[in-house]
Write a structure and sequence with these properties.
By secondary structure, this protein is mainly alpha-helical. It has 19 helices and no strands.
Length: 425
């Protein structure tokens, strides 16, 4: 039997088991042991996925129909099931409803009396940080929330974005003379289909916009690339790191278009009801809540046991290092084709994620989109193993991230010595 039929079938089965266990967990909220089968079933999908990706290097390639069938099957199950891992989508819906009521979403926390008339029994009680956090999501995300301001619409729309990522990846793979089977690296990634298919995280929009920017660059349309990049940055801020990899000939036009997109969208929300600097929302307090100001939130600082006063020096050194790497990529190596762009983008994304070590799994999903074009061991592992961040039963806040980031560093070294896949065919 073709190994991909077996691995794909097992991936569907374990996803179904995870869904059933998750429904049992939701029905037994007060039982701490109820979550164990759910978490185990999810994590078991990761080695199945890694085995499937490893199989891409063999002579037998998976049929694209098989790849897409498995991708559709797991996504349909997760779309039908209720959200199980995150409550962020309820804040998305709330922000959308606030906008549809004609109110700037940056002005009031959800618990504010000015928004009492919007409260309901389904969405409002599920909003996290409702009593103290102004929305942190930037303007492009807010536009998406306004367009999809119900639970059903938001989840279907996010699943649609995820599907468009797969379609665009296939197009980029074929344009790069790479086998379409490599779309498996994104389509079968369990973190991706849980975060985008079940939790409806807005990172799916960022991934799609970044791939649109890649396509625009290789099509020699720098202005459209800049608009897509700027919109991706205002979906989640982290995609800004990809800019050097996208830098085309005449890159200043892309930069101006990206800057105009960012400035224009922020200005629109800042001028709406005179919100001003409130458009930055919960950004500053979020850093304190995640212990980024004391250094405890950064894995490298925590694992080395460095004191909090070292944090500014760490961030300054990291910023200088990323700037040097970005400058080299943009102005010296100058990637031109999709493969080179995605390869350098993965380096930049992995470097940023290792430096910041975000505490939430969905921050890593968009990496899988670039890994599908330019596979690397580190990117494939990091973009799937980040599901471990949901396993909060481990008592040591250093141990759990180390299970993710330490192997990633070793795999980076392996990638440097030899590529994961040849890629063409």
């Amino acid at each position: 039997m073709n190994r991909f039929y077996l691995l794909g079938g097992l991936l569907v089965i374990f996803t179904l088991l995870a869904v059933l266990a998750g429904l049992g967990q939701l029905a037994a909220e007060d039982d701490p042991l109820a979550a164990l089968p759910f978490r185990v079933a999810i994590i078991l999908c990761v080695p199945l996925y890694l085995a499937a990706v490893a199989g891409l290097s063999q002579r037998t390639k998976p049929n694209l129909t098989v790849v897409l069938s498995v991708a559709v099957a797991v996504r349909l199950m997760l779309l039908i099931a209720p959200p199980m891992l995150s409550s962020d989508l309820y804040r998305y819906i709330w922000d959308g409803r606030v906008q549809m009521a004609g109110i700037n979403p940056y002005l009031f926390v959800p618990d504010d009396e000015n928004l009492r008339f919007l409260r309901d029994a389904v969405i409002f009680p599920m909003i996290n940080r409702a009593s103290y956090a102004h929305t942190i999501y930037p303007p492009a995300a807010q536009i998406f929330f306004a367009l999809t301001h119900s639970l059903t619409t938001l989840r279907i729309a996010t699943a649609g974005l995820d599907g468009l990522v797969i379609v665009l990846l296939i197009r980029l793979l074929r344009r790069s003379a790479i086998t379409s089977a490599h779309v498996l690296i994104y389509a079968w990634n369990p973190l991706v289909f849980w975060e985008f298919g079940n939790n409806a995280h807005v990172d799916a929009l960022a991934a799609l916009l970044l791939l649109v920017a890649v396509l625009a660059v290789i099509s020699q349309r720098p202005i459209w690339a800049g608009v897509a990049l700027g919109a991706a940055m205002l979906t989640k801020f982290l995609p800004a790191i990809v800019a050097p990899a996208l830098w085309p000939r005449g890159g200043w036009r892309m930069a101006l278009a990206a800057g105009a997109t960012v400035a224009g969208l922020y200005a629109a929300y800042a001028n709406w009801d005179h919100a001003g600097w409130q458009v930055l929302g919960f950004l500053g307090q979020y850093g304190q809540e995640e212990k980024l100001d004391t250094g405890q939130g950064y894995w490298l600082l925590a694992v080395l046991g460095l004191p909090g006063w070292f944090t500014p020096y760490y961030l300054a050194a990291a910023a200088c290092g990323l700037a040097a790497l970005g400058g080299f990529i943009a102005f010296v190596s100058a990637p031109r084709d999709a493969l080179a762009i995605c390869r350098t983008a993965t380096w930049l994304i992995i470097a940023l994620l290792l430096i910041l070590s975000p505490h939430y799994a969905w921050y890593y999903g968009w990496l899988a989109a670039f890994a599908a074009i330019a596979p690397s061991r580190a990117a494939v592992f990091l973009s799937s193993a980040a599901l471990l961040l949901y396993q909060q039963t481990l008592p040591d806040h250093v141990l759990l991230p180390s299970l993710i980031f330490a192997p990633t560093l070793l795999l980076l070294w392996a990638d440097w010595r030899a590529p994961l896949l040849k890629g063409t065919g």
